[in-house]
Amino acid sequence: MTQDQTTSQDAAPETPAPWRPSRTVAVVLAGGTGTRLGLGIPKQLLKIAGKPIIEHTLAVFEHAPEIDEIVVLMATGHVAEAQQIVDKAGFRKVTKVIEGGDTRNATTRIALDAVGEGDVNILFHDAVRPLVSGRIVRECVNALWTYSAVDVAIPSADTIVQVDDDDCITDIPVRSSLRRGQTPQAFRSGTIREAYRRAAGDPDFAATDDCGVVLRYLPGTPIKVIDGSDENIKVTHPVDVHLADKLFQLAAAQVPRLTDHRSYSDEVAGRTIVVFGGSYGIGHDLTELARRHGAQVFPFSRSTTGTHVERPEDVEAALKTAFEATGRIDHVVVTAGILEKGKLAEVDQETIDRVLQVNFVGPVTVARQALPYLQHTKGQLLLYTSSSYTRGRADYALYSSSKAALVNLTQALADEWAEVGVRVNCINPERTATPMRTKAFGAEPEHTLLAAETVAQASLDVLISDLTGQVIDVRRAPGEGAPAAVPVQADRSASAATAG
C-alpha cells in the first residue's frame, strides 16, 4: 500500500483506515555463502552451541506468539539442507524454504511473492543473527499498529568518521544521533511493496537495507526505530563465531528455574537419572534433590558401589542396573573427579595416571556406554568442568587441563549426537564447598564458596531444559555463603565429588 495519498485542494484529508493485517510473517534471509568466514558451507549452516545458526534463529520466531508464519530464503544449492533442519527441529510455522536471489533486492522481491497478496505484517531478519530476542520481535510487531515501517538499532559506542577517497576525514557526525542498524526490519506489506515498485524504475537501484528503500522511495513515510541489543550480533567474520558461541554460553547461565515444587515434580517424576560420583558433594546433593521431586536416581561411586568411571565394565554394570530396574535412562551425570595438588615435574606417574583416568577417560567411557540408553529416551549427558578451565593454574595443572578437555568434549558430543536427539551440557561452578575441595585446600571463609546445593539445583534446571552444547556458569548470588568447612572423609573417596 502506498503511503503518499493525494487529495484535491477542496477535499478534507482522508483518515487512513485502521491497520488490520491478516497475519504476521517472518522472512528469514539466509542467502549468505560464508565467503568472509572462509567456509565451504554457508555461514548460516555453521554450528554454534550445538545447533546450526539458522536453527537458533528460526527457533526464536517459532516460539514468538506474535509470528504466524515463517518463510526461509536460502542460499542457492542449499535449500534441501535448510529444509532438513526445519523438519528435524519440528518448526511448524515454517511454510516455505526457497532459494533467494542473486542480490538483496532480488531476494526481497522473491520473499514478497512468496508471502502473497493481502495486508500482512512482514519482518525481514538476517538468518545469521541467532541471538535476536523475543522482546525485539514483539516490539517490532507492536510498532506496526502505529507505523508502516520499523527498524531495529542500537546507539553507537564509537565515534563515526566520514572519509574521502584518500581516507582523510571529511566529517565527524554527532554520535548522539547515530545508531547501528540491526534486524529484523518490519513493514506493513503495502508499504514495502510500493517502495520496491517505485525502486524498479530506478536503473541505479541496489538495495542492501529494506528500510533504506522505504526512506529513499517513500520519503514521507516515518520509520520507527526500536531498541535492539548488543547481543543481537551478525555472524560475518571469524571472530563473530566465537563471540556468538560465548554469548550463547552466557545466556545459558540464566537457565530459568521453575516456580514451585509441583512444577519440578511434573518435569522430573518418573525419569531415571544415573549419577557417577553420587556419594558426596554435588553428586550427592543432586541425587537427593531429584529424588525429592520423584525421579528414580541411581548413584554410583568408588566408595559405596565400587564403581570406577574409567573402567568400561564398571560403567556398563551400573547402567545396566538402572535400566533393568526402571526400563529407561533419561539422564547420565558425571560428577566424579580427582583434584591432586602439586607441581607437574614433582608428581609421580601413578598420580598422573589416576587423575587423567578419572577426570577425562572416565567421562569419555561413560559417554560411550551411555549413548544407546540416552538415544532411546532423547536424554542428556551432563558433565562438570572447573572455573580453572579457562586458565590453567599452578600446582594443579592436571586438574585444570583435564577439566578444560571436558568443555571441548561437551561441545563435540553435542554436535555428534544432535542427529540422534541426545543433548550434552557441562556445568561450570565457581569454587564450591565440597569434601574434595576441603581435602585439597582446607577450611575457607564461607562467603567465598558456592554451596553444593546451589550447583545441584542448577544441574537439575539444565537436565529439564532443552539446552545442548552449553557450558553453564553457576555463580553465587549476592550475599550467598556456604559452610566454611566440609568434613573430610577418612579415605580417598571424598575426591570422587567434583569441586568448582
Automatic annotation (TrEMBL):
Site, as annotated: Transition state stabilizer: R36, K43
Gene Ontology biological process terms from the UniProt entry: isopentenyl diphosphate biosynthetic process, methylerythritol 4-phosphate pathway
Keywords: Isoprene biosynthesis, Nucleotidyltransferase, Transferase
Signal peptide boundaries: none
Enzyme category, top tier: transferase
GO molecular function: 2-C-methyl-D-erythritol 4-phosphate cytidylyltransferase activity
Segments of this protein annotated with the region Disordered: 1-22, 481-500
Listed EC numbers: 2.7.7.60
Site residues, Positions MEP for the nucleophilic attack: R175, K234
Function: Catalyzes the formation of 4-diphosphocytidyl-2-C-methyl-D-erythritol from CTP and 2-C-methyl-D-erythritol 4-phosphate (MEP).
NCBIfam families documented for this protein: PRK00155.1-3
Family, similarity comment: Belongs to the short-chain dehydrogenases/reductases (SDR) family.
Official protein name in the record: 2-C-methyl-D-erythritol 4-phosphate cytidylyltransferase
Origin species: Micromonospora nigra
Gene encoding the protein: ispD
